[in-house]
Amino acid sequence: MSYFFCNFAQKLFTMNEKRDIGSLFDRIAGKYDFLNHLLSLNIDKYWRRRAVRCINHDATKDAARPTYILDVAIGTGDLAIEIMRQQKADEIVGIDLSEQMMRIGLDKVAKAGLSERIRFMKASALEMPFESDCFDAITCAYGVRNFSDLDAGLREMHRVLRPGGQLMILEFSYPSNRLIAWTYDLYFTHIMPAIGRLLSGDKTAYNYLNRSVKTFVNASQMHEHLNSAGFQKIQSTPLTFGISTIYTARKSD
Q1: Is 86 helix (H, G, I), strand (E, B) or coil?
Q2: Closest Cα to residue 39, out of 169, 177, 219, 188?
Q3: Helix 21-39 and helix 192-200, axial crossing angle in degrees, nearest 10
Q4: Terminal C-alpha separation, the chain
């Protein structure tokens, strides 16, 4: 009973934090990229490259490759810049709730010479300001677990994606191997929050990261959520012992 109560309380606390997710990321925006690379031992760069390679333009119906991509939870723009580096899109519009993260992203995009091809917009993934069926592909890296309503966010993605278009999600996950899971849990529960607090000066943000990963759905459940939102051809690819997972799916023609 006590375990159930603690687990329920943890999920409730995480849900309350998600309602104010924009300000949470605003607080750590200045150190976000540095800590991302440090705490992942730079593996996050490989995860993004691998995820972008999964954007399968050959399967699109009306064009040789996706030309107009929506990047949900664009943050500081790392995924969008990688999409352009791999020549997977002509234009990207990215949405996020953190103005400070996007401000840093704007500077990075400008330095990469991509200001005319990558645009930033403050908007909620649960109520997107776009017409239906308008994007060739939709991407989201480490953002869906922050949705206060996962199903509502996935339904919105499905709505604005054109028929035949592809969804690609990169997200943290829990390893299935017990030894790896134990090591991963030790790192996420104690080491990473301590380093994050020390270097970012924020006492809560990196504890939230730990909780948000622990309470997020597993791969099988994610497939169910995607299917419920209307997606088809759902696939998942675990990365680095299952620490991250790439999910791909399509909207039917």
Answers
A1: coil
A2: 188
A3: 110
A4: 47
Query: Per the CATH hierarchy, to which homologous superfamily does domain 2-251 belong?
Result: Vaccinia Virus protein VP39 (3.40.50.150)
Q: What is the pTM of this model?
A: 0.87
Lowest-confidence region among 5-14, 44-53, 56-65, 91-100:
5-14
189-244 pLDDT per residue, tens = 778 778 877 777 776 766 777 788 888 999 999 999 999 999 999 999 999 999 99
Q: Which stretch of DSSP H or E encloses residue 16? A: helix 2-18
Please give the C-alpha separations between residue 243 and each of 18, 89, 196, in angstroms, as whole numbers: 22, 27, 18
Across the chain, what does the average pLDDT equal? 86
Alpha-carbon gap, residue 73 to 117, rounded angstroms? 17
Residue 75 banded pLDDT, cuts 50, 70, 90: very high
Helix/strand/coil for 64: coil
**Alpha helix stretches (DSSP H) within 86-204:** 99-111, 150-160, 178-186, 192-200
The domain segmentation of the chain, as residue ranges, is 2-251
CB-based burial, 27-48: b 16+ in 10 Å, e otherwise: bbbebbbebbeebbeeebeebb
